[in-house]
Write a structure and sequence with these properties.
- It is a single chain.
- With 75 residues, the protein is mainly α.
- Helix 1 packs antiparallel against helix 2.
């Protein structure tokens, strides 16, 4: 999988967790009974995506410098 910068992953985690929590609250408290299941389900999906980005953040290997661009020391 492609390397993603840690800052970008943290922003994605915060976005998905916050919208997931907000969707769960709106779905369970504010929404009319017809839309409760759908809004709550979308909140669960957002929380799951946040968990996926946490997993990516924790298991990702550090970026190594490109060997092709390394300058030679021998003269």
């Amino acid at each position: 999988m492609r390397y993603v910068s840690p800052t970008r992953l943290k922003v994605l985690m915060m976005m998905f967790f916050s919208t997931g929590i907000m969707g769960m609250i709106i779905g369970l408290v504010i929404a009319p009974p017809q839309a409760t299941v759908m809004i709550t389900f979308m909140g669960v999906i957002n929380i799951s995506l946040g968990a996926f980005f946490v997993w990516m953040f924790l298991t990702q290997k550090p970026k190594e410098p490109d060997k092709r661009k390394k300058k030679r020391k021998d003269v």
